[in-house]
Amino acid sequence: MVLNIKYLVVTIGAVFLSLGIGIMIGFNLNNSEIFSSQQLRLVEDMDSKLTEIRTENESLNLELRESASREEKLKSDFEDFLKASNDIIVGNKLFGKNVALIQTTEDYFFHDLGIRLEKAGAQIGPHILISSDILQIPYDEAITMDIFLNEVISVEKISNLIIESLKNGDLEILKNLENLRVISIINNGKTQAVDNIVLLGGSLKEENERFENIDTNIVKSSKSSGIFVVGAEHTNAIYSDIKKYESLGISTIDNVDQTIGIISLVYILDGEKGNFGTKSTADRLFPNLR
Q: What pLDDT digit, counting tens, does each position of 106-150 carry?
């Protein structure tokens, strides 16, 4: 931060010196006067100062690039260290945990998340993508499906069915919902009853309607069914859902695409509480490791 301010001050100083030289030359030319030796010396001195400032500016610019390069190298080394020591840090913490993934965003990929949680000892259930089409339910087609039992169809009802199917390990309901084109089953996973859900959000555009109708109902339905739910997203999510997840009273991870984010997720599923990650909404980077 100090380096950036110094770089800015030097740049502004160079601009004003250049402007001063231009004004002096323009003023004297406009009055058709010949520069006196004193004026020439002044211009030469200002030009020398400007050259010094430019040299310092280039030096600071190089220092900034080198500093950024060192920072990236440290981040890369830290990531490599975490990957190498991941088994030691997380061990088999999720042994006996049955975890399902529910993805409400179509903008980001979470393809290896289940595999990484499985390495921590978890049994991974279905990975479900809830389509935005759920907000435009084809009522005439849906009403003929036995799973709705002629009830009023709503996003809340569908959310309840998803959670019910996960709690009971019933893939048949999920397949019926997939036929209705409101969800996609990315991975069937294990068929046993689920007791933990990782809710995956974040988007490229603002989607308040999606969150209020889908994510909120998933969280409420999970809690009422006694299923633990945690919210997560990528570090590069343009529109974050973390603050909204916090308002629903669940723990969060805003960097689940990073190894340290996976470690935080494992610890939350193991009983830790809090909001972890790299964004301003996080309380800390990661939980107390134990």
A: 999 998 999 999 999 999 999 999 987 777 765 555 454 555 555
Q: What is the DSSP string of the chain?
A: -HHHHHHHHHHHHHHHHHHHHHHHHHHHHHTTPPPPHHHHHHHHHHHHHHHHHHHHHHHHHHHHHHHHHHHHHHHHHHHHHHHHHHHHHHTTTTTT-EEEEEE--SSS--TTHHHHHHHTTPEEEEEEEE-GGGGG--HHHHTTSGGGTTPPP-HHHHHHHHHHHHHHT-HHHHHHHHHTTSEEEEE----SPP-EEEEE--BSS--HHHIIIIIHHHHHHHHHTT-EEEEE--TT-SB--HHHHHHTT--EES-TTSHHHHHHHHHHHTT--SEESSSTT-SBSSPPP-
215-258: pLDDT as tens digits:
999 999 999 999 999 999 999 999 999 999 999 999 999 999 99
